[in-house]
Amino acid sequence: MCSMRVAPGRKELTAGVAGATLTGALFLTRAVASATTDSVSFAGHDLRWGCAFRQRFGIPCPACGLTRSVIMSLHGQLAGAIGMNPAGPLVMLGTVLLCASLFAFALRSAMLRRRDACDDGLLRKFTLLTSAYGGLIALTMLVNWVRIIA
User: Strands of 40-42's sheet, edge to edge?
Assistant: First the structure.
């Protein structure tokens, strides 16, 4: 039994719009943001913020460097991104795969005209894969954090 009841045609539209929005956000972020190992710039202005966890406890948090790492990944600076936080390139890879999955789902559903049916098996696989991906990101951040504070 399908756990998600959506009006005919709406699933495809929702998935397509979500994929397009996420893809657009990636392109926009790449266009207006840049990063170095020391700072993040947005529209040519350096952002002056620091890690609240680091300021409070004197050690970096598990996500320290993640913003810079993701932005550096968007610009193809993978060596620098991995050096900042190895989870950054993984986050980018997952985001790109999510966009592709949303487009593929919309296209598949539209082509098969299965507007009144829901593929629970596909939904379960997607849920399992996204959960495993989330676990991989968390584990990567934790291992990096232990490496930094040790």
Answer: 33-35, 40-42, 45-47
| Neighbouring residues of 136: CB distance < 8 A, sequence distance ≥ 6 | 90
b/e burial code for range 21-37 (CB count within 10 A of at least 16 → b): eebeebeeeeeebbbee
Look up the pTM and report it: 0.77
Q: Which residues contact 149 (CB under 8 A, 6 or more apart)?
A: 59, 60
- Per-residue model confidence as pLDDT tens for the chain (150 residues): 455 544 446 777 788 888 899 899 999 999 999 999 888 999 999 988 888 888 899 888 888 899 999 999 999 999 999 999 999 999 999 999 888 888 887 777 767 655 445 566 777 787 888 888 889 999 999 998 998 887
Q: What whole-number distance in Å separates Cα of residue 149 and Cα of residue 49?
A: 21
Locate 122 and state its tokens: 């596909």
